[in-house]
Write a structure and sequence with these properties.
It contains 18 helices and 24 strands. By secondary structure, the protein is an alpha+beta fold. It folds into three domains: 6-200, Histidine kinase-like ATPase, C-terminal domain (Heat Shock Protein 90), CATH 3.30.565.10; 219-341, Ribosomal Protein S5, domain 2 (2-Layer Sandwich), CATH 3.30.230; 381-560, formyl-coa transferase, domain 3 (2-Layer Sandwich). The protein has an eight-stranded mixed sheet. Helix 6 (165-182) runs antiparallel to helix 7 and helix 12 (408-422) packs across helix 16 (510-521). The longest helix has 18 residues, at 165-182. The chain starts with 5 loop residues before the first strand and ends with a helix. Bound molecules: adenosine-5'-diphosphate and magnesium ion (MG). Magnesium ion binds next to helix 2.
């Protein structure tokens, strides 16, 4: 069989961004593991001996035949592209044909490989420049084992420039975890000094894999969505988001973007993600958000830097819009986002058999009123039904898979805040409001948010217009003073929303509660208030059934 690894034509070599990519243990791991993934591996074992500067990566991928093995480590040889045009069709992680070649100049390289379906496996050790030094038949399962030893042995200054072994191992771990998130179907086993160091089990989706990597995050804290996009054809967007009412970070270290199987630095898209979470998190907290775009390769130029961690992406504004929409979709409260309802579990099937009502249904507080609202709430399929008010502070809301306690003040604050962001209206006041002893900074702050303010004698100012929601209030002067203390327009909008939202401790009738729930549910970011506090406590039916051990009774009464 003819070799499929070929040397790239010189004109293509010139087009590829040149540069050394092997500069650390982590970069060796990245290059070898990417080769394994390109070979279709679903199981990858990485073994490290940092003190010996030795790394071994074994995979169950497609393997190589003898011809390919002999060619693999020569300069610019790759099976992944052939011509200049192929640079716009890159589906693989590698394409430069340089990693194995550079390794032969920086370390000792040995590869064992057996192609899937091949009868024999071969072991080859390579010399400087990728020359084949030794070939022998070897017993090996289909797949490839690449061993790099004595890394930077002929170049001690490189070793000295590197951080401590512990830090390098941390970088290796980070590299593997990032790659694993992009390829959740792969099983990973990582060894250090002949001891198992960590493993990553395969998962159906990135969201299901993430808790293995970030143990403080639980599955229920995450929401995941996959959108197929019509444009460009065959593109898709996979988004895993930490719900802002449940989890966030003190650094933006988990705002991550991957494109076509590789984590990339794209400040433009990271900024879009941070903006989409604006005013949903407490101050100085950052979201968890992992975005994976699958884009047709002709839209991407991987050639921005040799390590391929930065790219040029066409139509960046289009992608920014799609990302913002997708984040809004996962953060919204819709029936699609309700956590898995109990009726999908085995227990629930038993519950339905054992209990009069398998589905959720409260007896309404006031049957007449309920009749009216339940009709209107049926119109919106994901609706919440107001059931009762507790302590004049919480609204008990029922939905298809459980109930929530919604704090009335901050739910209303969220509604008003978004209304103010959409429509910041200033209305005239008569008589004008008189303020005393303002500093020049306070006066200019009020002007900045659009208020008409004029001096009115010694230490006195008049304000002739105010934000609309403050109009009916008798604490207007106090509210304006609060606004004068600084911040931007959004800070002012938060302050006005907070001041005009219904106070806790205020009794609400059923209709008022239902109206608030309806409006709140329609907000763009219903989970947290603009200060980042959670708005509701969820009591999902699945959790309640577990808490009340409802399976015990059924189990017993059904003799299970
Ligand atoms: P590139 O990945 O850019 O093609 P490399 O130097 O990393 O360049 O690898 C050269 C070639 O060796 C690859 O194109 C591939 O055909 C082959 N190869 C490397 N590692 C493996 C592996 N683990 N399994 C199968 N083939 C491999
Ligand atoms: Mg490669």
């Amino acid at each position: 069989m003819a070799s499929t690894i070929q040397t790239l034509p010189t004109e293509v070599v010139y087009l590829i961004t040149a540069g050394e990519v092997i500069d650390s243990l982590a970069s060796v791991v990245r290059e070898l593991v990417e080769n394994s993934l390109d070979a279709g591996a679903t199981r990858i074992v990485v073994s490290l001996w940092p003190q010996q500067w030795r790394i071994c990566v074994a995979d169950n991928g497609c393997g190589m035949n003898l011809d390919d093995l002999q060619q693999a480590a020569t300069a610019h040889s790759t099976s992944k592209i052939r011509s200049r045009a192929d640079l716009w069709k890159i589906k693989s992680l590698g394409f430069r044909g340089e990693a194995l070649h550079s390794l032969t100049t920086l370390a000792d390289l040995e590869i064992l490989s057996r192609p899937v379906g091949g009868k024999l496996g071969w072991r080859i050790s390579y010399g400087d420049g990728g020359k084949v030094m030794q070939v022998e038949v070897t017993a090996i399962a289909p797949g490839t084992v690449v061993t790099v030893s004595n890394l930077f042995g002929n170049c001690s200054s490189r070793r000295q420039g590197l951080p401590t072994a512990a830090q390098q191992m941390k970088a290796v771990q980070g590299t593997i975890q990032q790659i694993a998130l992009c390829h959740p179907h792969v099983t990973w086993q990582i060894w250090q000094n002949d001891r198992q160091w960590f493993t990553i089990c395969p998962a159906a989706t990135t969201g299901q894999l993430l808790p293995q990597i970030l143990p403080q995050v639980r599955q229920g804290d995450l929401q995941e969505v996959k959108l197929e996009l019509p444009n460009p054809p065959n593109s898709s967007l996979n988004l895993v988001v930490g719900l802002p009412d449940r989890t966030h970070r003190h650094r933006p270290d988990w705002v991550r973007v991957a494109i076509n199987g590789r984590m990339v630095k794209t400040p433009e898209l990271e900024q879009t993600i941070l903006s989409a979470f604006h005013r949903t998190l407490p101050r100085d907290r950052y979201p968890i958000c992992f975005l994976h775009l699958a884009i047709s390769p002709d839209q991407i130029n991987w050639n921005r830097n040799p390590a391929k961690t930065e790219i040029y992406l066409n139509e960046i504004i289009y992608w920014q819009e799609q990302i913002t929409q997708a984040i809004n979709q996962v953060l919204s409260i819709s029936s699609a986002n309700f956590k898995e309802a109990v009726h999908t579990t085995r227990v629930s099937k038993l519950l339905q058999a054992a209990e009069a009502k398998g589905s959720y249904n409260f007896t309404p507080q006031n049957p007449n009123e309920d009749h009216k609202t339940s009709n209107s709430s049926l119109a919106t399929p994901n609706s919440l039904k107001a059931v009762a008010q507790v302590s004049n502070t919480y609204i008990v809301a029922e939905h298809s898979s459980g109930m929530w306690l919604v704090e009335q003040h901050i739910a209303h604050e969220r509604v008003l805040y978004e209304q103010l962001c959409d429509d910041w209206q200033l209305v005239p006041v008569e008589p004008p409001i008189i303020l005393y002893q303002l500093s020049p900074a306070q006066v200019s702050q009020l002007q900045r948010i659009g208020l008409e303010i004029e001096p009115f004698g010694e230490q006195l100012w008049t304000v002739r217009n105010i934000p609309a929601p403050l109009q009916p209030r008798d604490d207007c002067a106090e509210a304006i003073l609060e606004l004068s203390w600084g911040g931007d327009l959004q800070t002012a909008q938060v302050a006005v929303a907070c001041r005009s939202a219904i106070r806790n401790g205020t009794p609400m009738n059923h209709e008022e509660m239902q109206t608030l729930l309806d409006n709140w549910q329609r907000t763009r970011n219903p989970r947290t208030c603009p200060h980042g506090r959670p708005i509701y406590l969820s009591l999902e039916e699945s959790a309640l059934a577990r808490f009340f051990r409802r399976n015990w009774v059924i189990g017993k009464s059904h003799g299970i």
